[in-house]
Every structure is written in C-alpha cells, then in structure tokens.
Amino acid sequence: RMGSRLQSLIGSQRQLLRDVSHELRSPLARLRIALALAERATAEERERLWPRLTRECDRLEALISEILVLARVDADNASAEEVDLNALLDNLLKDAQLACPEQPVKIQAESPLSLKGWPTMIERALDNLLRNAQRFNPAGQPIEVRALRQGDRIVLSVRDHGPGVEAEHLRQLGEPFYRAPGQTAPGHGLGLAIARRAAERHGGSLTLDNHPQGGFIASLELPLVPDVTAQA
User: Fold this and answer.
1) Residues 6 or more apart from 60 whose CB is under 8 A from it?
2) At 66, which CATH number?
3) What is the pLDDT of residue 71?
4) How many angstroms separate the CA atoms of 76 and 39, rounded?
5) Final residue belonging to a domain, choices 75, 109, 136
6) How far apart are CA 25 and CA 17, in angstroms?
7) Model pLDDT, residue 232
8) 35 and 104 share a domain?
9) Cβ-proximal residues to 119 (8 Å cutoff; 6+ apart), any chain
10) For the chain, is the Cβ count within 10 Å smaller at the N or the C terminus?
11) Would the CA dihedral through 117, 121, 124, 125 be positive or negative?
C-alpha cells in the first residue's frame, strides 16, 4: 500500500509539473510576440504596446504566485496551532464586502468555533472559495456562508446563486488548472485546487456541488484535530 501511494504521489507531481509548464508557456508566448512587435514598432506604436506588456507580466506574476501557494501547502512543516475560526471568518468577510460591495455576504456561524490546524492554509482556502463565489454570483444576490460543528468536525460552506456547473464536470473541479468549459471569468484553475489541498493537509475534504435550490456550493470539512497521516 505504501508503494502504491508513493507511486501515485510521484505520478501526480509529474503531472503537476507538466501542467505548470503548459500553463506558463501561454503568457510567455504572448510576451515574446509583444516584444517582437515592439522591436519593429515606431516610438508611437511602442507606447501603445507597453500596457499590453504590463498586462502579460501581471498575469504571469499572478500565475506564478498561485503556483507557489499550491506548493507551500505541501511544503509547510510548521506545527499545528489553535485557530479561532470566528475571528478568521470575520476578517475574510470584511475583505470580501470591500472587494465586492454589490454582493452581500450572509453568514451563519456557531460561536465559539476553533480547531487545531494551520491558520494561513485555512484562510487561503476560504478566501479562494469566497472569490470563486464572487466571480459567478449575480449582483444583488447574497453569498451564503455557514460554519457549523458536526461531531468531531467543522463544516465551512460557501454558496453562490450563479449558474452552477454541469454535472459531468463536477468531479474534475479542484484539479490544478482545470476550468469547466464555457467559463469566461478570469482565473487559472488553481483556487479550488489550493482549497482542496489545504483540506486534505488537515485530514479533511472539499466537496463541490450544485445546490439543490440553484447556484453552487463548496463545503470545506475539517477535523477538530488534524490527521497526521494525511501529511505523509
């Protein structure tokens, strides 16, 4: 079993490297084209090309930043600590409201809620779930956040009122760089992958599904004490 798990981990790492290489080629290719055009352009034409070069550099920087976050989830060997989920949620929701004031956030959370874990990972995971909801939630409709204790676990869910995802694509959501067909919202397909890996690092899970009453719901299930075997 250990041999099979190691082989699976090696295979997934190799696939991730191939995916990273593929994703980095696109912005690099666009940069090369823009630079080639700039070399042959007049001074006036170059002025029009600089914003394009800046945009491509920003996209590349954002992509590399997300890849590094995904890598740090696996590489972080710090000890687990007590995490105040109520305070963490309050801060995240304030930031979400400032970023998208036209999308109210409704929260239903038990208090107090705390667990042993890695606060930065949990914060990043929830932030990605909120930002994902904001991309697809229509203006004026609330984003619904729930945080409830269920036995020896805490379930944190984020629901939007957007179009949801076709059933055949649900199983692939959360894989690095995967984006469901037809998406026009910006992103690299890493936000849900980071949230899923953070949940798994705690010995928990991330469930992605369409809500029965419409929209999309992401549920982060975390144990009160992290499962050390999940960190292997």
Assistant:
1) 24, 27, 28, 31
2) 1.10.287.130
3) 65
4) 43
5) 75
6) 12
7) 46
8) no
9) 81, 83, 88
10) N
11) negative
First to last CA, the chain: 13
Tens digit of each residue's pLDDT (9 = 90 or more) over 165-213:
888 888 888 777 677 766 656 565 678 888 888 898 889 999 999 999 9
The two structure tokens encoding residue 151: 């036995």
Residue written as token pair 């719901």? 217
Token duo for residue 113: 């809620």
Q: List the structure tokens of 81.
A: 């600590």
Q: How many domains does the chain have?
A: 2
